[in-house]
């Protein structure tokens, strides 16, 4: 199965991540099929550059994003598969629920 995941690049204490399509059995920094974007957490705000056409193509052939990549793609405005979007909605509702309960 193909996953869209982060691959760490950059230097010590200066991380930059590539968003790649890779087989799920490959190690995190191992072989990958294609680079579809880049994430730089050091800029303010964090920068996410994505090739939306290539991401949509990988989704069409059954690729699934990791949880972190799903969050990054959603923030970048890329449409996610239904399963990933449902997980993301659940996480976001849980993160706002305690704040609403404590406000009462």
Explained architecture:
The protein has helices at 52-60, 67-75, 82-103, and strands at 2-11, 14-23, 34-40, 47-50, 64-65. The protein has 104 residues and is α+β, with helices and mostly antiparallel strands. The chain has a five-stranded mixed beta sheet. The N and C termini lie far apart (45 Å). The model has no long low-confidence stretch (mean pLDDT 86).
Topology readout:
Blueprint: E1 2-11, E2 14-23, E3 34-40, E4 47-50, H1 52-60, E5 64-65, H2 67-75, H3 82-103
Parallel strand pairs: 1-5
Antiparallel strand pairs: 1-2, 2-3, 3-4
Features:
5 strands, alpha+beta, 104 residues, 3 helices, five-stranded mixed beta sheet
Read across the widest sheet, the strand sequence of neighbours is 4-3-2-1-5
Number of helices: 3
Order of helices and strands: EEEEHEHH
Distance between the termini: 45 Å
Question: Quick one: biggest sheet?
Answer: 5 strands, mixed
Quick summary:
With 104 residues, the protein is α+β, with helices and mostly antiparallel strands. The protein has helices spanning 52-60, 67-75, 82-103; strands at residues 2-11, 14-23, 34-40, 47-50, 64-65.
């Amino acid at each position: 199965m193909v996953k869209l995941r982060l691959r760490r690049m950059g230097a010590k204490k200066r991380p930059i991540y590539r968003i790649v399509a890779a087989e799920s059995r490959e190690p995190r920094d191992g072989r990958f099929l294609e680079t579809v974007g880049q994430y730089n957490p050091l800029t303010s705000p964090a920068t996410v550059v994505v090739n939306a056409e290539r991401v949509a193509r990988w989704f069409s052939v059954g690729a699934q994003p990791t949880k972190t990549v799903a969050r990054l793609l959603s923030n970048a405005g890329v449409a996610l598969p239904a399963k990933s979007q449902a997980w993301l909605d659940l996480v976001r509702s849980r993160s706002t629920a305690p704040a609403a309960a404590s406000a009462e």
